[in-house]
Amino acid sequence: MESPPSLRELRNMSLTEYDNVFNLTWTYRQDSDVYSPVSTASIILQRFLDEGSGNQNEDVEKLIKMKTNVAIWIVSNCDGTKGARKRILLAQDMVNHGLEVDRMGRCFPENSAPPRGTSPVDLIRKYKFYFAFENSYHCLDYITEKLYRNAFRAGTVPVVWGAEKRDYLAVVPPHSCIFVDDFKSTAELVKYLKYLDKNVTAYREYFKWRTMKPQDMPNYGRQVRVCQLCRILHGINVDNIFNPRYNESYLSIPLFEHPSRPRVVSYLREWLYGPVSKECLATY
């Protein structure tokens, strides 16, 4: 569940010892045999609907009124990977261009810590923007709790940096994030965030997805984790229709459909590290 740089560079895991060991892959990647995302947008929305008052437009207005601060970033991995170092510089550049950002976590011990007992969600909810910056850049499908559990659950607009935009768009609600990669410069990004800070009508547009029906969300109905594994083991493999990189190699799934020739992941290292971009992992 960690990014390729965290495994290969930080932990020195070549994974060659696992060739021909496993039958299936189970990761955050959408092309895994068993897809295990940190969360899914439809689940987030359903939780929001269940906890809400019944009128989602009213709930959106309540969320917006809670926001008394501009932007927040909570981070503890300061330099473990190249991406971690790059995101520190990115955030500092945004501050240098005049964005008001409260930076917290082990990387900023000099800054005030949140009051003891304050949950991250309760803290983040008071801000208009949350920096959902990953510890790696353009690593295939690598999107973590920074987006789902922190920003979406807190009802704060995430500013995202990490995976490629197409990977985000495959799993997040429409117009729910601000993508750093959309802007030609940090100055241009900061200018846009300042504009949203002063224009409540434009800012509110990033909350429209919260009034959507769950069935209209990306990946609605897709079985994941243990439920998907259960289907595979019982010969029900309909979930591959969601796989954006489906290919004929999946004809060997379900396992029990071909008992004379069990499926084997021949080169786990190649499967995990091979498809990622040079921006993610220069060499492995």
Automatic annotation (TrEMBL):
Keywords: Glycoprotein, Glycosyltransferase, Golgi apparatus, Membrane, Signal-anchor, Transferase, Transmembrane, Transmembrane helix. InterPro entries: Glyco_tran_10_C, Glyco_tran_10_N, Glyco_trans_10, GT10-like_C_sf. PANTHER family: ALPHA- 1,3 -FUCOSYLTRANSFERASE (PTHR11929), ALPHA-(1,3)-FUCOSYLTRANSFERASE FUT-1 (PTHR11929:SF145). Belongs to the glycosyltransferase 10 family. Its EC number is 2.4.1.-. Pathway: Protein modification; protein glycosylation. Residues 65-236 form the Fucosyltransferase C-terminal domain. This is Fucosyltransferase. Transmembrane segments: none annotated. It comes from the Eukaryota. SUPFAM superfamilies: UDP-Glycosyltransferase/glycogen phosphorylase (SSF53756). Signal peptide: none annotated. Its main location: Golgi. It is a single-pass type II membrane protein; Single-pass membrane protein. Pfam families: Glyco_tran_10_N, Glyco_transf_10.
